[in-house]
Amino acid sequence: MSATRQRPFRRLPYATVALLSAGVLVAGCTSNTPEESGGGGGANEAASANDEPGETVTIGFSAPAADHGWMAGITEAARAEAEKYEDVELVVAEGTNDVSTQISQVETFINDGVDAIVLLPFDGAAMTPVALQAMEAGIPVINVDREFDSPFAARATILGDNYGMGVSAGTYVCEQLGDNPDAVVAEIAGIDSLPLTQDRSQGFADALADCGLNVDNRVAADFTVEGGEEAAANLLQAAPQIDAIWNHDDDQGVGVLAAIQNAGRDEFFMVGGAGSANAMRAIQEGNSVLQATVIYPSTQGADGIALARLVAQDKNLSDVASQEVPRQIVLNAPVVTADNVDQYIDSAFES
Amino acid sequence: MSSSTSGGSTTLTTGTGKSDAGRQRGSGGSFMAGPVGRNLGLVVALVILCAVGIYTAGDRFADVDNILTILRLASVIGVVSIGMTFVIIGGGIDLSVGALVALASVWATTLATQQLAEDVHWIVMVFTALVVGAVAGLVNGVVIAYGKLAAFIATLAMLAAARGLAEIIANRRTQIVRDSDFLAFFSGDVLGVPTLVLIFALVAVAGWVLLNRTTFGRRTFAVGGNAEAARLAGIRVQRHTVKLYVLSGITCGIAAVMIMARTTTGSSTHGGLYELDAIAAVVIGGTLLIGGRGTIVGTVLGVLIFTTLGNVFTLNNLSSSAQAVARGVIIILAVMLQQQLATGGLNFRRRPSSGVSSGGPAVTGSPSGSVSGGTTAEGGPGGTRPTATGTGTGTGKTL
Scanning A108, A117, A201, A349, which has the fewest C-beta atoms within 10 Å of its C-beta? Predict the structure, then answer.
């Protein structure tokens, strides 16, 4: 019996050594050095008297974990924006998908007495009480992307337009197919249970209805490349003839394009969503079915930083006649095509 | 994996049909023999699904391209499930498979790896993925076998750590595979059969042979059925456990290569919830979660059922939520149907001798174990088997 106990070690070391040395060999492969210059920080801001350095302000920034290209782009663009102002000191809390962690981050900002807080909540409703607390403590809160429950919880709110994205995509599809009421339109949605997905789909359906079209085939993926590939592979089998596809998200769009290529289909055109640099490069090259994408700006966080600075320094929004920074800004969801891609590609996020 | 233990296996078999060791031995030998009978429930479920598909979607379902699409989508999770089958039969569980797929895919698509692949050959990327999977599996195995941690805990920790490491390496970005030769090879086809499907088929056949025709496979059944008995019978249980997790890790590496080909990317989001998909496929495939019993054929059928389900739902333009509900229902129905068939056959066969062991179909490995054990050891019940299973079992045993 002692023999059986010792034997396990006999050959294991060889396997271990072999595997580990292979591992060491492979370990050199983690490097990802050539980094892209941080996407974001749009180059389209006009110079104004507002850019003059004012008193230095400290801005706290908190956002969900950057587990998705777009969300990574948000934080990156916010940092880049803060870099541009010498009078802004940005404190970035580690991105988290845990509401209680994010609440404690905001509480820390309050205790530290920052001059303004830019908050992209993981869950708008759950973050409302702590945002109210900050406002009561005299710290202006700039709410980004996911809205709070209470209008008193934020000094200013800056939002992307999910319904508008659907409308933009639908309108573009209508322009391309308008004269063909029998055209087959397919939709590849993101995570179906999210309100933002429902808003996008509603906008798309409404815009299509306007020109007498409707969504013939609809599948939902999960914002991942893999999910996009699987959903698209099945969709292409479900619809042997398609005229247009709207895919909600460019991150999953990489997988969607892989599936389309694999199936050897090209009788339709595709419209993307969110506006990743990858998608824009594909539009620029013009050799895939991806013909356009609808932007959901990943520069919202950067806008939040800019607004927070103005609010904290008691400045106005230039180019707007009225005094004070507006309460709410809803960003447009423009369609990017080969014609105007050069204008947008610099502020696109890397997925 | 020497074949020197064949003597040991004979001893076990002749020992007694009722001892634990004899039971595992017996079941190990008989599984390849009667997959049809044992997997009848699954075949019925799959046939029903296909019938629904043909009825509702007609030519769009019964189309060669569509069948290939189903097989292609099944192939990645299928390969993972084969590895999972071994681990579960061996009495363990591997919750880290999805995370390992993500880690291997990311590691194999970093700029450094891709640069190396460009300079040398794309096989470097494949090699990297396999090694990453194997090393992670080795860590799992060593922690479980020698660190005495519960498999559930150890692989749960690996699930978290591997995905975290994948996110760090990838910087949470989607890494595009640039090597067009790699993509051309793996997304191509051989005589009309996609390479991915071929890989799945190869892995499945290799898994079947390994499980049913080698001492490695027999030891796996023995270790999963009763580790102590296996140890007394001279099987190095710890070392064997490590091997099982390394095997699972390697299948994750293979799956990572396949997913890189399928999506043209490596990403830390790959393989999401694979652990649950794989476990579901393995379990509806008739493998006992406590180990000691299971089949490769069942697992393959299980994977095909889930993938076909998704396909049929999409062809009919139904929502993914409805699909999730159907998935749950199918898991329950398939397992119940299987038990029904198993116990039905069992009662029928056992009636003349004794109904004792046939009593608890849902309990553990005992019912099926005793069937096969009985078949081989006593021969009597085997003779009463209605199908050719009995004979198959007999020949399998004498090998």
Answer: A108
Question: What stretch of H or E contains B372?
Answer: helix B366-378
**B4–A contact, CB cutoff 8 A:** no
- The confidence band for A33, taking pLDDT boundaries of 50, 70 and 90, is low
pTM for the model stands at 0.78
Interface of B with A in 138-157 (CB under 8 A): 138
Q: Kindly state which CATH superfamily the domain A162-295 is placed in.
A: Response regulator (3.40.50.2300)
Cα A162 to the chain's mean position, in Å? 11
Does B56 contact A at CB distance below 8 Å? no
Contact call for residues A75 and A67 (beta carbons, < 8 A): no
Residue B1 lies in a domain: no
pLDDT for residue A19: 62
Q: Which pLDDT score is estimated for A24?
A: 63
pLDDT, position A222:
87
A237 contacts on B by Cβ (under 8 Å): 60, 63, 65-66, 69, 311, 314-315
Position B3 pLDDT exceeds 70: no
Strand partners, A82: none
Chain B contact set for A240 (CB, 8 A): 60
- CATH 3.40.50.2300 boundaries in chain A: 49-159+299-319, 162-295
Is the pLDDT assigned to residue B23 strictly greater than 90? no
Residue B392's pLDDT is 35
Residue in A293, A304, A305 with CA at minimum distance from that of residue A69: A293
Instruction: Look at residue A181 in the predicted model and tell me its pLDDT.
Output: 84
State the residue range of the domain holding B378.
6-398
Classify residue A89 as left (phi > 0), alpha (psi -120 to 50) or beta: beta
The two tokens of residue B386 are 């209605």
Asked if the ipTM is above 0.90, the reply is no
